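Z., the sequence and structure:
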Amino acid sequence: MTAAIEPALVRRAAEGDPTATTALIGAVRPGLVRYCRAKLGRVGGAYTTADDIAQEVCLALFRALPRYHDQGRPFSAFVYGIAAHKVADAQRAAIRDSAVTTTDAPLEQPDNAPGPEQQAVATDLARRLSVLLDRLPDLQREIILLRVAVGLSADEVGTIVGMSAAAVRVAQSRALARLRTLAGEELDEVAA
């Protein structure tokens, strides 16, 4: 959802127009998938859980549309408010269900996933990035995820986090500078 959603499309969808609803869900879904993947990460080498949560957000949005009323805020604030709640629910469920074991059922079709070396490199990179992001304050981490991973504008992120667009840009700049410093420190530690 890198471009602003047309208010007329939102209004028509809220009024029950099926064509508008389909177009609206189609417009917001790619950003929701990126947001959920950024917040939840990979589980077992795949983004299945994050994609499922993004689908749940779309369903919740579909159910909430008839009750949606424009209150002068971007529609994305409404959408990502729902997404934040669904992600938090998924994180709580993952903690609760962490004791559940998986079965090693044989694969029924060829695996088209990257090879072990590519998976190891990608997993290590994701782990390192996650560690670096976890060292940022919550607000800076949320701004980086919404701006970089999801691709929202500074205005949209500002509405979501309760800041002006200029303040979001400053916070993003500081967060990226902090990430560069942290990454440099990590490289220094590895080299030592």
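The CA atoms of residues 28 and 156 lie 13 Å apart. The chain has a mean pLDDT of 83.

Let me know what you think.
H.
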